[in-house]
Amino acid sequence: MPDATKPVTVAFVLASYAPDAPAGMERATAALARGLRQLGHRALIITAIEPDSTEDEVDEDLVVLGSVGVTFPASDDELREAISTHGQDKIIAADLRALYRRHHVDIAVYVDALWGLGRLAPACDGVRTVLAMHVVGHDQDLVPALERTDLVIVPSTTVLGHAHDRDYDSTCWQIVPNALLGNHSAPDASQREALRRSGPVRVLARLGPEKNVRALLDAGRLVDRGVEVVLAEAGFEHAAGAQAAEYRRCAHSAAYLFRGSVRDDGLPWDQVQPWLANAAVVIVPSTKETFGLVALEAMSVGTPVVAFDVDNLPTLIGTGEGAGGIVVPRAHGEFGLWGAAEVLLDDPVRYAALSRAAYYRSRDYLPTTVAHDFLKAVR
After folding, report:
1. Across residues 293-316, what is the average pLDDT?
2. Which CATH number covers residue 35?
3. In whole angstroms, what is the distance from residue 178 CA to residue 359 CA?
4. How far apart are CA 120 and CA 279, in angstroms?
5. In Å, how far are 53, 78, 170, 290, 310 from 177, measured between CA atoms?
């Protein structure tokens, strides 16, 4: 176990990691790594994706694991086959050990049982093994991952509940929430009021069916306010071509909006908070959300959030005094999300109160705060 009084080197393993990737696991990993560095520790991120050769600066703490051998985006089955056939798992394990020795790694964090290669986690002298379970994965990946880990961390009680429902013993798992990657300033009160009166409703999501964007757009055809949606493909998908098909469906639905636009080019990470800051309200239409990073990012710049009462969203946003948005019963459907947003935007007093509360709720998720939580859990 690392000495609590000295700096440590933490290696995060996530095959699909790439800077600006439009996915919560990647952004949360980058945020925790940033927090650890701000505390004086070293944080490596080990990925299977070659960095963009056009980048001017080389990130010495981004390490490519070339032995994974899969083309991205990839499905679960494609990655699972690539790393488990013809002895490739042993080659990858050996490469990881070599990286840990070369960089004097103290803690190896496998960010998911499959995509974080937790199912392969090799034993290495002096290296503490941590499985960061953002979602409860497939049994065929999770069972071997749990056998190989010293500690499991999860971002919310939602994941603990999902694991319990699947008959996994989660009593010793530790909660380490996701962190904010950026710290963009929130609009002042006068700017926020101007946004309430005439700013757009914005939606930011990865192209996945559980993000539920198409249904939201179908229900919003009569909304008389600007609606702006940004979608993007992640490095992983449920099946080959699934993300492209999802975008085509969303774009078709958006064509019927009175005043709306949908684009599929995503946003660089440093533009996420500024874009959300300039929304009147952010709708998170997800039907599954084990943490809710987009909701947190919107709240961090004082933009109220409207979301369903699913998974971790009620805990994150709040449901009573001090809430940072409105939580809508799932039974009310997507029309309920639009209705809640409309009522909120027509109420300047409540809107201002939610905006202030949203910002202050987000302060618990600064990178250094979460990094402290992480180190307390793993040491």
Report:
1. 98
2. 3.40.50.11930
3. 16
4. 43
5. 32, 29, 16, 10, 17
Residue holding tokens 């990073």? 293
4, part of any domain? no
Same-domain check for residues 154 and 202: no
Residues paired with residue 237 on neighbouring β-strands, in sequence order:
75
Q: Smallest Cα–Cα separation from 236: which of 49, 24, 73? A: 73
306 with 325: CB under 8 angstroms? yes
- The distance in angstroms from the start CA to the end CA of the chain is 6
Rg (CA), the chain: 21
Q: What pTM did the predictor assign? A: 0.94
Q: pLDDT digits over 39-67, tens only?
A: 999 999 999 998 875 555 557 799 999 99
Please give the structure tokens belonging to residue 292: 């809710």
* 183 is a domain residue: no
CA distance 11 to 107: 6
* 271 within some domain: yes
In sequence order, what E strands does the chain have? 9-13, 42-47, 62-64, 74-75, 107-111, 128-132, 151-154, 174-175, 201-206, 227-232, 236-237, 260-263, 281-284, 305-308, 325-328
Separation of alpha carbons 305 and 299, rounded Å: 7
Whether residue 262 is contained in a domain is answered as: yes
96-147 pLDDT, tens per residue? 999 999 999 999 999 999 999 999 999 999 999 999 999 999 999 999 999 9
User: How many domains does the chain fold into?
Assistant: 2
Q: What gap in Å lies between CA 179 and CA 365, rounded to an integer?
A: 5
Query: Would you call 249 exposed, middle or buried from its count of C-beta atoms within 10 A (0-12, 13-18, 19+)?
Result: middle
CA 232 to chain centroid, in Å, comes to: 13
Classify each residue of 65-92 as buried b or exposed e, where b means 16 or more C-beta atoms within 10 Å of its C-beta: bebbebebbbbbebbbebbbeeebbeeb
For residue 349, give its domain range. 189-364
Cβ atoms of 310 and 289 closer than 8 Å:
yes
- Judge contact between 16 and 26, C-beta under 8 A: yes
CATH for 204: 3.40.50.2000
Q: For residues 275 and 108, what is the distance between their CA atoms, to the nearest angstrom?
A: 34
Q: Which helix (H) or strand (E) holds 247?
A: helix 242-254
